[in-house]
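User: Please fill in residues for this 177-position structure.
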């Protein structure tokens, strides 16, 4: 199926209480497997459902769904943290910076633009919240992700070493209109 054909079937919506955290967690584990195979120990490569729940408690969690036999199948997710809820490093602690994480798309649906749709929604949230910047971090060695974010207008603003990863992260941020 073409990119446009798949994208026309995708709906972005907030995570619902009836959506399973176990299924969401397994989606994240699968989405990050390629990164784990490259040697990067992102939290999402191995997190459990309790960690997923903790990470969405202060976030606006969105999911990308596609209709499978009359049932929403979650094929992507992203968590948005408003400036009031973004934290963890000096850049994220700024009162004009929002951030996002726990961002992944099922491997079979990657490369269709679904991740871009999720980021587009998060950028709208950040603008509505009055954020001047939207930030993300990723492994310094994950050049394909750094390139992906750069093409979306994100620039390098620093580095951070998280205690739960085995790499140094590149902090990237985008000025919002």
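Assistant: Residues filled in for all 177 positions:
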């Amino acid at each position: 199926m073409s990119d446009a054909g798949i994208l026309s079937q995708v709906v972005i919506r907030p995570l619902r209480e009836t959506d399973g955290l176990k299924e969401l967690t397994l989606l994240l584990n699968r989405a990050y497997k390629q990164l784990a195979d490259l040697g990067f120990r992102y939290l999402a490569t191995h997190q459990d459902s309790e960690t997923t729940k903790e990470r969405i408690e202060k976030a606006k969690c969105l999911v990308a769904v596609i209709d499978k036999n009359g049932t929403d199948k979650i094929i992507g997710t992203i968590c948005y943290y408003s400036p009031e809820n973004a934290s963890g490093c000096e850049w994220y602690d700024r009162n004009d910076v929002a951030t996002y994480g726990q961002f992944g798309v099922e491997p079979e649906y990657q490369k269709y633009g679904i991740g871009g749709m999720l980021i587009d929604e998060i950028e709208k949230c950040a603008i509505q919240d009055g954020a001047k910047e939207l930030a993300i971090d990723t492994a310094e060695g994950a050049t394909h992700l750094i390139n992906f974010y750069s093409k979306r207008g994100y620039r390098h603003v620093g580095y951070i070493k998280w205690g739960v990863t085995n790499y140094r992260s590149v902090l990237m941020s985008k000025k919002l209109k």
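For context: The beta strands are 10-14, 60-68, 71-81, 97-105, 133-139, 155-160, 169-175.
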